[in-house]
Design brief:
This protein is α/β, with parallel strands linked by helices and about 80 residues long. The chain has a single domain, classed as 3-Layer(aba) Sandwich (Ribonuclease HI, Chain A), CATH 3.40.970. Helix content is about 35%, strand content about 20%. The chain has three helices and three strands; from the N terminus they run E-H-E-H-E-H. The chain has a three-stranded parallel β-sheet with strand order 1-2-3, sandwiched between helices. The longest helix has 13 residues. The chain is globular.
Length: about 80
């Protein structure tokens, strides 16, 4: 259903760069209630911090190095599935 909003996990494992177009998309309202950026390297963290620092984000967005911690954060505000 289009009106259903859900948390979203973005795995940055193979991300090499974040284009201007991608940064613009991060600023658009979408169906995500929260966005967790998952990375494992210092480069992932630098890219995530850049996106978080220069983009106006439409929902809470954070960077994580642990999938389990990211998933726990994503479901903090989740109510019952619609």
């Amino acid at each position: 259903m289009r009106d259903t909003r859900r948390p979203m996990l973005v795995d940055m494992a193979t991300t090499e760069k974040v284009s201007r177009g991608a940064r613009a998309l991060f600023g658009r309202r979408c169906q995500a209630t929260r966005i967790a950026l998952l990375g494992s390297s210092p480069v992932d963290k630098v890219m995530a911090n850049f996106v978080l620092g220069v983009s106006r984000l439409p929902c809470p967005t954070r960077f994580f190095t642990s999938r389990e911690v990211a998933m726990a954060w994503l479901v903090l505000d989740s109510g019952p599935a619609a």
